[in-house]
Design brief:
InterPro entries: Quinoprotein_ADH-like_sf, WD40/YVTN_repeat-like_dom_sf, WD40_repeat_CS, WD40_rpt, WDR55/POC1
Radius of gyration: 20 Å
CATH superfamily: YVTN repeat-like/Quinoprotein amine dehydrogenase
Helix content: under 10%
Keywords: Repeat, WD repeat
CATH topology: Methylamine Dehydrogenase, Chain H
Distance between the termini: 36 Å
Strand content: over 45%
Largest sheet: 4 strands, antiparallel
Pfam families: WD40 (PF00400)
CATH architecture: 7 Propeller
Protein name: Vegetatible incompatibility protein HET-E-1
Structural class: mainly beta
Organism: Agarivorans gilvus
Length: about 325
């Protein structure tokens, strides 16, 4: 006869093995048949933008699961767009290759302009809500802030090594940037003045700003991921990571700053509590059938409501997941 102690251990093991990251999505649909180079969901989850291997750029209505626009990034024969971002407010979007970018009007589907850089490769981009201010993180350690309306160009030289991640406030006034020099910097895009420094023991791989400016997120290529209060710079929490290394492929704040959503290159989509840093729930996005080994990069995620969130990944799928409360 099995003892009560062994029964309890067995029951706990069963519960752990059937945790939420093994559950299938509530719904999913394909936006890129052979997979995607990049994808982004709008903050409200209503729109998705995809750079696919064979079909260039496309903008989708997530709720109706229909394509709104098919775009061509400078009529390139081979799609080289590896960065796409939908600006807050859903009025504008940006697509970028290693050396150029295009800003799009989501309402009309028209390109607002094409800009090219020759000095260094683009590693990350961000766009203000009015579509007029662009932030570019470069491989040479520079961060460039462009005002597309006035033509003003500011080169931020606060970093000494290549930039890995950039974030821009909705109004374009503040930037958060992280690089291989073991630091993330919060700075004023009008003056280039550094307002806050967030040092890390490793290369800073991800940064994010909360939409109403209350929080900032920084993480490195080791096991340190922290949430900071703005403008004080005081630490709010540190994510309680279990893996020795947990490099995020995507990070965003959600639910008015109550939660943080992260994605990884190993299929994992996670929901965290901002003030405690506790993990609330995990999911595993679906890999593309033809990939070997079976894996997928989480490119983007967004809350649909208080009970569901959506993800977009390299498999070319948008998937909807149940939040257990």
């Amino acid at each position: 006869m099995i003892s009560i102690k062994r029964f309890v251990i067995l029951l706990v093991a069963i519960l752990i093995s059937s945790c939420s990251d093994d559950l299938p999505p509530l719904n999913s649909w394909e936006q890129a048949v052979e997979g995607a180079y990049a994808a982004d969901l709008s903050a409200d989850g209503r729109l998705s933008m995809v750079s696919s291997i064979h079909h260039g750029l496309s903008l989708w209505d997530v709720k109706q699961q229909r394509q709104l626009f098919q775009w061509s990034h400078q009529n390139q024969q081979n799609n080289q767009v590896f960065l796409v971002k939908i600006a807050e407010g859903n009025h504008f979007a940006i697509s970028a290759s290693r050396d150029d970018f295009v800003v799009w009007n989501i309402k009309t589907g028209q390109a607002l302009g094409y800009w090219r850089l020759s000095e260094s490769s683009i590693r990350d981009v961000a766009l203000s809500s009015n579509g007029q201010q662009v932030l570019l993180g470069l491989g040479n350690g520079k961060v460039i802030h462009l005002d597309l309306q006035t033509g003003r160009r500011l080169e931020f030289l606060g970093h000494s090594e290549k930039i890995n991640s950039v974030a821009l406030s909705a109004n374009g006034r503040y930037a958060l940037t992280g690089g291989n020099d073991y630091q993330a910097l919060f700075w004023d895009t009008q003056t280039a003045q550094v307002l806050l420094r967030f040092p890390h023991p490793g290369r800073v791989s991800s940064v994010a700003l909360q939409s109403d400016g209350r929080y900032a997120f920084t993480s490195d290529n080791g096991k340190l991921a922290r949430i900071w209060a703005l403008p004080s710079g005081e630490q709010v929490s540190q994510l309680k990571l279990t893996a020795r290394q947990n490099i995020f492929s995507y990070v965003t704040f959600a639910n008015q700053g109550e939660w943080l959503i992260t994605g990884s290159a190993a299929r994992k989509l996670s929901l965290w509590h901002v003030k405690s840093g506790q993990l609330l729930q995990d999911w595993l996005v679906t890999p593309h059938q033809k990939t070997r080994p079976k894996s997928a990069v989480v490119y983007s995620a967004a809350m649909l409501d208080n009970e569901r969130l959506a993800s977009a990944s390299s498999s070319g799928l948008v998937e909807v997941w149940q939040i257990n409360k």
